[in-house]
């Protein structure tokens, strides 16, 4: 699959690592072109391109910027009509210990509203960058879950295919409005992992019999 990763921070770099390892053709782009190039150079199967060129052949775009930069960064890619976008952002406060949106809307809904031509799916926002980079195996046969919320079945299926191909357990979280629940869940993860000092292994998993 042709996948564009928008953002070269910890999450963006972890996505490039795992997606190329899984055999996808990956383009990474970021506001800092040098940083994007450095990420691409570390992984066979990845290339770095300027934003205006990065999404032309993309089947899926992974939005790995901060929420505050998300809409402008997506618009910088050019025409995204009909493109599938996996939104991994969380609307965090400056200290990462709170959310700037919630209850009546979500980051995902705001992005979709600002860019009505895209097919957006919320996903991977509850997964720490360290967990993504290390892989989805929790040990004991348990895998890290990825929750997917979208009003587009096509977008959800694309994200499901990617997540399962990386080894994650996928949980269908319903329509896009349920991002209102997933983003606070990510906020709880961040508080427990960093605010309470419990580490990134605290990320919740849902256990099932069989």
TrEMBL record:
The UniProt record lists the keyword Transmembrane helix: no
Keyword Transmembrane applies: no
Pfam families: F420_oxidored
Segments forming domain Pyrroline-5-carboxylate reductase catalytic N-terminal: 3-91
InterPro entries to which the protein is assigned, alphabetical: NAD(P)-bd_dom_sf (IPR036291), P5C_Rdtase_cat_N (IPR028939), STEAP_metalloreductase (IPR051267)
Domain of life: Bacteria
Keywords, ordered alphabetically: Oxidoreductase
Name of this protein: NADPH-dependent F420 reductase
Protein source organism: Sphaerotilus microaerophilus
